[in-house]
Specification:
Elements: H1 25-33, E1 39-40, H2 53-71, H3 81-93, E2 103-106, H4 108-120, E3 126-131, H5 135-142, E4 147-154, E5 157-158, H6 160-172, E6 177-182, H7 196-208, E7 212-216, H8 232-235, E8 240-245, E9 257-260, H9 263-277, H10 282-294, H11 297-323, E10 328-329, E11 337-341, H12 348-357, E12 360-361, E13 363-364, E14 377-381, H13 387-410
Parallel strand pairs: 1-12, 3-4, 3-6, 6-7, 7-8
Antiparallel strand pairs: 2-9, 4-5, 8-9, 10-11, 11-14, 13-14
Helix pairs in contact: 2-10, 3-10, 4-5, 4-9, 6-7, 11-13
């Protein structure tokens, strides 16, 4: 996983913010885990094999036959109007009211996180994330050099008492949090879901301390069990910036996400998007709209839920079989991920090379924290590997973990801590 050092003769030319830009460990891992001999429990890849290629080909042929010139042309920055109507229907499926004029289409939800950083964060500004938090969001935020206050989560989501303590402390210093970033449904990477009670509590604190809430909701329709919780936007539209994506219920390769937000914020986001890319692909937006307008997309989501539920169950059973009493882990009600915690003296970043040698991969936990934390944790993905590969992957991983524990004990390393931290400045 180490990279060859290259002397950069242009170091004095870069903007200061580039010093805060960090490579995503997940992106770096994909090159390794693409090897056929490795069982990857790393990247959060949706199971695209469930999609009928002939159906997709039919959609493309219809667009090129009926609307070729427009599909190959520039489009409006805010998005293809028929697709925006489809996105409204997707949000309504989760009980979230929205109008097409409340939406801007983006190049995946990741672009949304980048432009939200661009319009809100000045160097030194205060923002709040969960701990752990989605690494793509952290990397976008960090490049604009804020002070990130990471609040721990438990099985019901963000800890409100810790959040309140942080907000009160900053307020007492005359500082105000710009926004609170959260993944409330089937959290990436923790796999937990914020309870309805905590959603209300989070919004009450945001109101009391006058900060926005950024709700990142990629997995909301991928629920395996339990009762759905209302989205934060459904509860309070006026303070919530909502991000959605088609990557998890249709196609990651189409790169289509969207934001729903109060109109003054949408206007600023639109300006930021114009300077970034002019518009999201007219071609892929038309494919997506035609899919949601003409196909049984709800049935497709139900099929994905069944596939992912089975693989989640297999992973949980394998964890119990091979790592019971050694590790602890979350039990997600939906989504794509488990969060695993090992003994404190095990550093999952250091252990990764041994795992790769054993032909299994995961994402070390430290990348999901803005500065420090997660050194003895890891994120496991169950959505992409076939069930037998999920089982075999956990079996291989357990052997690596047990070897690391035995070695640490033999060397008297228990209780010794080491790890990398990102700089705060």
């Amino acid at each position: 996983m180490s990279k060859k050092f290259v002397l950069d003769p242009f170091g004095d030319k870069y903007a200061h913010r580039t010093s805060s830009m960090l490579s995503s460990e997940i992106r770096d891992l994909l090159a390794v885990t693409a090897r056929r001999d490795i069982i990857s429990l790393a990247g959060g890849l949706p199971y695209t094999q469930a999609m009928n290629p002939d159906m997709i080909l039919g959609l493309v042929e219809e667009i090129l036959r009926d609307d070729c010139a427009a599909a190959l042309q520039y489009g409006p920055t805010d998005g293809y109007a028929p697709l925006k109507r489809s996105l409204v229907e997707i949000m309504r499926e989760e009980g979230t009211p929205c109008l097409p004029e409340d939406i801007i289409v983006t190049n995946g939800a990741q672009q949304g996180l980048e432009i939200i950083s661009k319009i809100f964060i000045n160097p030194g500004d205060d923002i709040v994330t969960e701990a752990p938090s989605y690494v793509g969001a952290l990397n976008s935020f960090l490049s604009y050099q804020p002070r990130i206050h990471a609040i721990p989560v438990d099985e019901e989501g963000i800890l409100l008492d810790r959040l309140k303590e942080t907000l009160e402390g900053l307020s007492g210093q005359g500082r105000k949090v710009k926004f609170i970033y959260t993944v409330p449904n089937f959290h990436n990477p923790a796999g937990v879901t914020m309870s309805t009670e905590r959603r209300y509590g989070l919004l009450q604190l945001a109101e009391a301390f006058d900060c926005l809430v950024v709700e990142d909701n990629p997995y909301g329709l991928l629920r395996f069990e339990g009762e759905p919780c209302p989205t934060l936007r459904r509860l309070v539209e006026s303070r919530v910036i909502y991000w959605g994506t088609l990557s998890k219920i249709f196609s990651a390769g189409m790169r289509i996400g969207w934001v729903a937000a109060p109109h003054p914020i949408l206007e600023k986001l639109l300006l930021a998007k114009q300077s970034a890319d002019l518009c999201t692909s007219s071609f892929t937006q038309r494919i997506a709209h035609l899919y949601f307008a003409s196909q049984d997309w709800r049935g497709q989501v139900r099929q994905l839920v069944e596939i992912y539920r089975e693989r989640r169950n297999v992973m949980l059973e394998a964890m119990e079989e091979f790592l019971s009493g050694i590790a602890s882990w979350t039990r997600p009600q939906g989504g794509l991920f488990l969060w695993v915690t090992l003994p404190e003296f095990i550093k999952t970043s250091d252990m990764l090379a041994s795992a790769i040698d054993a032909k299994v991969a995961y994402v070390p936990g430290r990348g999901f924290f803005p500065y420090e934390g997660g050194e003895n944790s890891m994120r496991l993905n169950f959505s992409y590997p076939e069930p037998d590969m999920v089982w075999e992957g956990i079996k291989r991983l357990s052997k690596v973990v047990k070897r690391e524990i035995a070695l640490a004990k033999a060397l008297g390393m228990e209780g010794k801590a080491s790890g990398r931290s990102r700089t705060k400045e």
